[in-house]
Amino acid sequence: MAAEDTTVYLDDLDISQTGTKRQRTEEASGQNDAKPAPPKRQRTLGEMTFFSGSQRTVSRSSSTSTLKSSGSSSSIVGKSSNGSTSPLKGGMKLNAIPFSLSAYQVSLSDSEKRLLKLECEVMGKSWLKVLKDEIRKPYFLSLKEFLWKEGVRDLEDTRPTVKVYPPVKNIYSWSNFTPLGKVKVVLIGQDPYHGRGQAHGLCFSVPHGIPIPPSLRSIYAEIKNEYPDFVVPSHGNLSAWANNGVLMLNSCLTVRDGDANSHADKGWEKFTDCVLDMVDKYGGANLPSAGGGESGFGRGVVFLAWGAYAAKRIAKLDKKKHLILTSAHPSPFSAHKGFFENGHFRVANEWLEHHYGPESKVDWCKLDCD
């Protein structure tokens, strides 16, 4: 395992307004050992007007950011993330959508079979059946041609010379940990970690044995604020959350070794926008219902958007259908500007309990599985 002081993460890099990157350590930022002040009294759901059906912005004088919370609706008629009205009640339920992997593979051209072999091999089937047409579009095939030249091909290609992260088998791990119908929270990231061994397909998370990234330390500190009994783990593996319905999605799913954002603007962003469209349409479809809503269709989920980039990615979603929580990014350079004391973990669970019952809450404190 690499020593912690030699491990560099994207959020260790301070990017100035001119776009110049300056590497800084957590120690220099003064955030590594600093603990945020104890949180103020938690706001209740009533105070945040989750049940009123109207959007409200709650401002804190101690922060330059705002916490946006929205009303909720159990109606399955709402806006899709492309802004159009989608009357889902007359559509097909998620589990009723037919899909045969073998028939799909037969329908592919020779070029598509080569380029989409990885998706057919490793993408979770609940996702593949709703994304099967998207990955045949020209932009995605162009993305796959680019990745092919970068060395990202299929599971049979294990050449050690490939310097793209995460490993090929983990590019779509989010889709296997969190089936579409069980999504209840979406955590938006930007770019996979670009150091060896760090990325494993879940945003903000690293495998066991890898030093905890600085942003994740801030996340742990905020959980400790909201749940004082939380025992901060010695690792940064968040797969337990993914297994519990938290979709941990980066906007770009691959990155070149040591080169942050090197695979940006190649097509991943358009693809993950489509993933969010599917969450808008079917997220939570297989969750038990506590307050109405037809099983088999999406009835709303929680979106955690930390930082301006993440907030922009989900800005077009229906704020009456979903709970959308925004704040500053947990990076050491911005966590004190509104991430600490944002109350997101408790607020998310209150909303989930109201919509889907107490069993739907995420155990944010349980991180003891691989």
UniProtKB/TrEMBL annotation:
Check the record and name the PROSITE patterns matching this protein. U_DNA_GLYCOSYLASE
Write down the superkingdom of origin: Eukaryota
Q: Quote the InterPro entries the UniProt record gives.
A: UDG_fam1, Ura-DNA_Glyclase_AS, Uracil-DNA_glycosylase-like, Uracil-DNA_glycosylase-like_sf
Coarse class of the primary localization is: mitochondrion
GO cellular component terms, alphabetically, are: mitochondrion; nucleus
Q: Which Gene3D superfamilies match?
A: Uracil-DNA glycosylase-like domain (3.40.470.10)
Q: What class of enzyme is it?
A: hydrolase
What's the EC number here?
3.2.2.27
Q: Is the keyword tRNA processing assigned to this protein?
A: no
Q: Name one GO molecular function term.
A: uracil DNA N-glycosylase activity
Active site residues of this protein: D191 (proton acceptor)
Q: Which UniProt keywords apply?
A: DNA damage, DNA repair, Hydrolase, Mitochondrion, Nucleus
Q: Does the keyword Transcription apply?
A: no
Q: Which residues form a coiled coil?
A: none
Stretches of Low complexity bias are at: 52-86
Reactions accelerated catalytically: Hydrolyzes single-stranded DNA or mismatched double-stranded DNA and polynucleotides, releasing free uracil
Where is this protein found? Mitochondrion; Nucleus
Q: Tell me its family.
A: Belongs to the uracil-DNA glycosylase (UDG) superfamily. UNG family.
Q: Which HAMAP family match?
A: UDG (MF_00148)
Q: According to its UniProt entry, what is the function of this protein?
A: Excises uracil residues from the DNA which can arise as a result of misincorporation of dUMP residues by DNA polymerase or due to deamination of cytosine.
Among PANTHER family, the record links this protein to: URACIL-DNA GLYCOSYLASE
UniProt-recorded name of the protein: Uracil-DNA glycosylase
